[in-house]
Write a structure and sequence with these properties.
This protein is mostly beta strands. The chain has no helices and 20 strands.
């Protein structure tokens, strides 16, 4: 093939972060970066360093107009963790191959030990432990908002990116092995 136009491939997944077992939509975009661009055609292949899988065959056909074209697949995995999602564009008669990647965070939904009745929230949200509730946020729990403790809260290996607020000044709150205020 005679490739005359350079391209740039990129990928973006939304939502990110995403709960384990929940699908996120990953969109690949290929842009012709030549001075007189045309619309890239062909297919994009998706891969990841995670244990999950992409919908369909793991590839999709580009569509678009102007200098850019895109396509999307959904991705889901059962385990939490940070992974890299990569896309590879194979090129066409006019456009050269290119690749791109992004980091995707897959979190375990809010988990607790003991009586967590009334506990709400999870990653991307604030968590409130109401008065009278007892809860332990365990390893693998990620809270990007704030945690407000009006009941009895024990943290054991959780990650809290926001603030930990104890409205009742609960001296029994135990904080061990956690990351607070990332």
């Amino acid at each position: 093939m005679d490739f005359s136009d350079p391209t740039q491939a990129s990928v973006n997944c939304s939502p990110d972060p995403v709960a384990a077992g929940t699908a996120t939509t990953c969109t690949a975009t290929v842009t012709d970066t030549a001075s007189s661009p045309s619309t890239p055609t062909g297919t994009v292949s998706f891969s990841s360093t995670g244990s999950g899988s992409f919908s369909g065959s793991g590839s999709c056909s580009l569509s678009g107009s102007g200098a850019s074209a895109s396509c999307q697949l959904s991705y889901a995995q059962a385990a939490g963790g940070e992974l890299t999602v990569s896309v590879g564009y194979s090129g066409d008669g006019q456009h050269s191959p290119s690749s791109g990647s992004t980091v995707l965070t897959v979190y375990q939904p809010l988990k607790g030990n003991g009586n967590c009745t009334g506990v709400s929230g999870g990653t991307g949200q604030n968590v409130t432990v109401p008065a009278g509730a007892t809860c332990t946020l365990v390893a693998g729990t990620v809270v990007t908002g704030n945690v407000t403790d009006n009941g009895t809260l024990t943290l054991s290996g959780a990650t809290i990116d926001g603030n930990l607020q104890s409205q009742d000044n609960d001296p029994a709150a135990v904080v061990t092995g956690n990351t607070v205020g990332g």
